[in-house]
TrEMBL record:
It comes from Granulosicoccus antarcticus IMCC3135. The gene is exbB_5. This is Tol-Pal system protein TolQ. Residues 80-207 form the MotA/TolQ/ExbB proton channel domain. Keywords: Cell cycle, Cell division, Cell inner membrane, Cell membrane, Membrane, Transmembrane, Transmembrane helix. Belongs to the ExbB/TolQ family. Pfam families: MotA_ExbB. It is a multi-pass membrane protein. GO terms for biological process: bacteriocin transport; cell division; protein import.
Amino acid sequence: MNSDMSIMHLILGASPIVQVVLVILAMASIFSWALILGKSRQLRRAQRMAEDFEQDFWGSSDISGTYSKLTMRRGTLDGLERIFEAGFSEFGRLRRKTSNDEIIMDGSGRAMRIAVSREAELIENHLPFLATVGSISPYIGLFGTVWGIMNSFTALGNVQQATLAMVAPGIAEALIATAVGLFAAIPAVIFYNRFATDVDRLLNRYENFAEEFSTVLQRQAIRRVGGDTETS
């Protein structure tokens, strides 16, 4: 390739507006990849912790023992651990205050729904940025392309005889903006869709556990009522 037509030469020789567009797109791409790597680790960790907790929880018959272990590291709880801790903590608190099972179950269920909502905020954090990059980067690149081509044809008006060699560099530098825009947008769209699917799957898992755990707590409440009746 002619050195005058190298990618770096075209970028350095581009108009200031096109260069600004390229810098914006490059920064968007860098931030996108940093977010993609971080979100991938976060979701893998959340899925692994959910699997480990469910295996330990359903494999044990001592709910109080599981709760006691979690309270010893309350500041480091994550995912299903927080949901379980919130539901069982509220269940125990209300059970000490009232014998109304409906109030107890509503309170524990509400505590778990709030915990699920907070977990959703954590795992969905920054995903809109990927969606934004994926949707607007091509248009930013297109703006740079249109501006570059416009400058190239405007410059032709100042010469008496136009040749392809005169207009080619300007058009090439303009098309680089479109290419960089697509380079930023395509990974952002791909990983946004992937992460959105993973987040939905994880939140469904959280919500299913909350419903199943509510059933477990309800059985405990019924046993307590039965025991109190027999005692009386």
